[in-house]
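Weekly modeling sync, notes
Attendees: S.R. (lead), two postdocs, one rotation student

Agenda item 3: backlog of single-chain predictions. S.R. asked that every request posted to the team notebook include the full sequence so nobody has to chase files. The rotation student volunteered to paste the first one in as an example of the format we agreed on. Action items at the bottom.

Example entry:
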Amino acid sequence: MSSVVKSGAFLQQCFAVHPLSLSFKLLKLPDKVGILCTNCKMQHRLIFRGLAIVMGQGQLAEQGAVDSILKCATEHQENLRVSGVDVVRDMVQFRCRGCKMRYQVTITSIETYQP
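Predicted structure, as returned to the notebook:
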C-alpha cells in the first residue's frame, strides 16, 4: 500500500536531483495535473487554480492555455516535461520540446504518492 504526502517537498526534490525524469502524465479538468518521476517512480498530483502559456519575457496568457496544453498532451505527450518547480511561489512550469510551447500552472496543493 502506498502512502500519500501532502507537500511539495518531494516534487521539489525530484526536480532538484533528476529534473529530466519528471514528465507530464495527465490533465484532468478542471484543476488536476499528474506528473510521474521515472527515476524514483513517485507520482505527483497538482491541484491548480491557474494555467497559462508563458510568452516571451515571462508574460503569461491564460486565454487558450487549456486547449494548447491538451493538444500537446494528445499529439506528443512524451515531449511535455517539467521545466521549473517553485513551491514557495506555488508554481510549476512545463515545456513541450515538440512545439516549443511553455506553460505555467499556479498550484493550490501537491500530493505525492510514494511506491
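Discussion: group reviewed the output briefly. The longest strand covers residues 102-114.
Action items: rotation student to repeat for the remaining queue; S.R. to check formatting next week.
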